[in-house]
Amino acid sequence: QVQLVESGGGLVQAGGSLRLSCVASGRTFSSSTMGWFRQAPGKEREFVAAISWSGAATYYADSVKGRFTISRDNVKNTLYLQMNSLKPEDMAVYYCAAQVPKTSGSYYYAYEYDYWGQGTQVTVSS
């Protein structure tokens, strides 16, 4: 099994930046696709960004393109989400997720992910 722990959330003003981190423990981390999802109050879980096991391929929701950057450090077993130019609409609980190694699948759908963190709150004030 893989355990994921997010950190880095907090309160920022609109236009500010935050960097989220997700520390993973488990043997499959370095060879798995990982992603970030978010859920605002009263809303469904939403895809934010994903990254391939090697870090060579990244994917972003249209709402965050140009503002957020996903990256990973397999040596440190850590996933990152750099969030710039934050907007009130970005306010949500952000979840780190990981897939088990697989030969095929999707980065976009939550059901493709096997492990989830507990989430970290991002609050954006105007």
Task: Describe the model.
This protein is mostly beta strands and 126 residues long. 0% of the residues lie in helices and 47% in strands. It contains no helices and eleven strands. Strands 2, 4, 5, 6, 9, 10 and 11 form a seven-stranded mixed sheet that branches. Strands 1-3-8-7 form a four-stranded antiparallel sheet, with no helix packed on it. Strand 7 (68-73) and strand 8 form a beta hairpin. It is globular and about 45 Å long. The chain starts with a strand and ends with a strand.
Q: How many β-strand runs?
A: 11
Cα-to-Cα separation, first versus last residue: 40 Å
- Strand percentage lies at over 45%
Task: Outline the biggest β-sheet.
Answer: 7 strands, mixed
Count of discrete alpha- or pi-helical segments spanning 4 or more residues:
0
Task: Write down the overall mean pLDDT.
Answer: 93
H/E element order: EEEEEEEEEEE
Uncertain runs: none
Helix content: under 10%
Structural class: mainly beta
Provide key terms for this protein.
four-stranded antiparallel sheet; about 130 residues; mainly beta; single chain; about 0% helix; globular
Write a compact overview of the structure shown.
This protein is mainly beta and 126 residues long. The protein has no helices and eleven strands.
Chain-wise SSE layout:
Blueprint: E1 3-7, E2 10-13, E3 18-25, E4 34-39, E5 46-51, E6 58-60, E7 68-73, E8 78-83, E9 92-98, E10 115-116, E11 120-125
Parallel strand pairs: 2-11
Antiparallel strand pairs: 1-3, 3-8, 4-5, 4-9, 5-6, 7-8, 9-10, 9-11
